[in-house]
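Methods — Computational structure assignment.
A single polypeptide chain was analysed. Its primary sequence is given first, followed by the predicted tertiary structure written as structure tokens.
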Amino acid sequence: MFPYLLDAAELFESGADAARIDNALVQWGMPMGPLRLIDEIGVDITIDIGNTLETAYGRRDHVSSVLLWPARWQDAWRKAGAGFYKYEGKAQTPNESLAQWRRALHGQAEGAEGPNEEGLARRLIFLMVNEACALRGGESRPIT
């Protein structure tokens, strides 16, 4: 599950909109999107597990910069009312300050929105399927 979450954060950092990523996975059948799940779990836990996975499996499970920016951000996730989204009660809205950070870091490159919704869902779901195959000793294949 965590490679799925880490890759979703990487997609966001690369320019894909948080709501597009999450909506694609909800449409696929997940109860919530991966970025919302990171908000719920907490960035501190996500970073800790991501670092453990990277130590065990290498760069394929690295923690995205968006999760590390800045240290004070780590305390401001869902538990405090903000993360990839801002929360007021049960309402969630995109966290524009995080999107501004991403634009400042990478600019707004053409095509940065990433693949379409089906492509987003396939990339993240197939990542989990490949991880399951690898854990069972099967052959994992590149995700296209």
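Note: The chain has a mean pLDDT of 80.
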